[in-house]
Amino acid sequence: MDENEVEAVTRAWEDALANHDVEGLLACYAPDATLESPVVAHILGGRGVCVGHEQLRPFITEVVARTPNERHYHRAGFFTDGHRAMWEYPRSTPEGEQMDFVEVMEIEDGLIRAHRVYWGWRGVQILANDEYHRP
User: Are strands 111-119 and 29-36 parallel, antiparallel or unpaired?
Assistant: First the structure.
């Protein structure tokens, strides 16, 4: 894949997330994809890993339903090697603070095969304060 193809996948994923589009998000993932994030354990309990659409669907459904107000999508590009995409949502933005993450996606055949999310201190603080609105 080239940089434009990788960017198309990351943009489709980011647009679906910003629009709370569960089906659009699932369409970005390979059927057997893995997603690793502290919010997986926070929302679903257990390990912080989802495997396949069967586990991704309930997780993504809860994420889009519980998105904290401080979740924004300011970033300044991404890095890719044609297979892996990586970018940062920094805590400090021109519009103020946002949740801080580093996203890493392994992309094959136009789909996300593996997705890892590394949280910064502001994102961890939001989890600690249970701002994902646990019922």
Answer: parallel
